[in-house]
TrEMBL record:
Keywords: Sigma factor, Transcription, Transcription regulation. NCBIfam families: sigma70-ECF. SUPFAM superfamilies: Sigma2 domain of RNA polymerase sigma factors, Sigma3 and sigma4 domains of RNA polymerase sigma factors. Residues 94-146 form the RNA polymerase sigma factor 70 region 4 type domain. Residues 2-59 form the RNA polymerase sigma-70 region domain. This is ECF subfamily RNA polymerase sigma factor. Pfam families: Sigma70_r2, Sigma70_r4_2.
Length: 165
């Protein structure tokens, strides 16, 4: 019986506990004056059920151990998923969107077509009915607006402050 349980649980001490508990349960049934037709079969079946219960309780204990980790032990979120970083990112996006929104309409259109849609200057010029040179100027103006926005986000003085940086 001990060898059978040891093969199943792969731990001799745990197997000895299973065997002892199995015999205790079998004796309790016999003492209740119930007749047992196949005591050996009942003993092995009882041992199997105890081993299943042990396995289940070990699995529950593993989950409880994971849940019991303190915040300090739990893995930290990546930097870009930290609440402060997410708020800062949203503010930066809003600031860039506002800076782009302040551009004159044709300048904004050329900048968006190039930066977000990835169109080349010649295609933008054809689409807008203007020269490639004018498209280059519009895009340069949009980049300057974004660069000024970035300086402000980083707390550096920019051309809009009247100071040099």
């Amino acid at each position: 019986m001990l060898n059978f349980c040891t093969r199943m649980v792969k731990d001799r001490d745990a197997a000895a506990d299973v065997v002892q508990e199995s015999y205790a349960r079998l004796l309790a049934i016999q003492q209740s004056s119930a007749s047992i037709a196949e005591p050996r079969a009942l003993l092995y079946q009882t041992a199997r059920r105890i081993m299943v219960d042990l396995y289940r309780s070990d699995r529950v204990r593993e989950h409880a151990d994971i849940d019991a980790l303190t915040e300090a032990e739990q893995p930290e979120l990546p930097a870009h998923q930290q609440p402060d970083a997410m708020v800062a990112s949203m503010r930066a996006i809003e600031a860039y969107a506002a800076a782009i929104e302040t551009l004159p309409p044709r300048c904004r259109e050329a900048f968006i077509l190039h930066t977000f849609d990835g169109l080349p200057y010649a295609q933008i010029a054809e689409h807008m009915g203007t020269s490639v040179s004018m498209v280059e100027k519009h895009i340069a103006r949009g980049r300057l607006a974004c660069r000024d926005c970035e300086r402000q986000l980083l707390g550096h003085p920019g051309p809009q402050d009247g100071r040099t940086g």
